[in-house]
Amino acid sequence: MAAGRIAHATLKGPSVVKEICLGIAFGLAAAGLWKMHHWNEQRKVRAFYNLLEKGEISVVAEE
C-alpha cells in the first residue's frame, strides 16, 4: 500500500539566521515608531515655545 508512505514535512529547530533577521526587522520597526513619537513631541514643544515668544499665549493666569 502506497497510502502509508505520504511525505510529511519534517520538523526542524529554529533557524538562527531567520530569528536574527526577524529580530533586527522588528527592532528597526519599533525604533522607527519610537523616533516618530519623539519627533511629534518635539514639534509640539517647539510650537508651544514659538507661540510663547510671539506673545500669543501666556503661562500666567490672567486676573
Automatic annotation (TrEMBL):
<protein>
    <recommendedName>
        <fullName>Cytochrome c oxidase subunit 5C</fullName>
    </recommendedName>
</protein>
<dbReference type="InterPro" id="IPR008432">
    <property type="entry name" value="COX5C"/>
</dbReference>
<keyword id="KW-0496">Mitochondrion</keyword>
<keyword id="KW-0999">Mitochondrion inner membrane</keyword>
<dbReference type="GO" id="GO:0005743">
    <property type="term" value="C:mitochondrial inner membrane"/>
</dbReference>
<feature type="transmembrane region" description="Helical">
    <location>
        <begin position="16"/>
        <end position="34"/>
    </location>
</feature>
<keyword id="KW-1133">Transmembrane helix</keyword>
<comment type="function">
    <text>This protein is one of the nuclear-coded polypeptide chains of cytochrome c oxidase, the terminal oxidase in mitochondrial electron transport.</text>
</comment>
<keyword id="KW-0812">Transmembrane</keyword>
<keyword id="KW-0472">Membrane</keyword>
<comment type="similarity">
    <text>Belongs to the cytochrome c oxidase subunit 5C family.</text>
</comment>
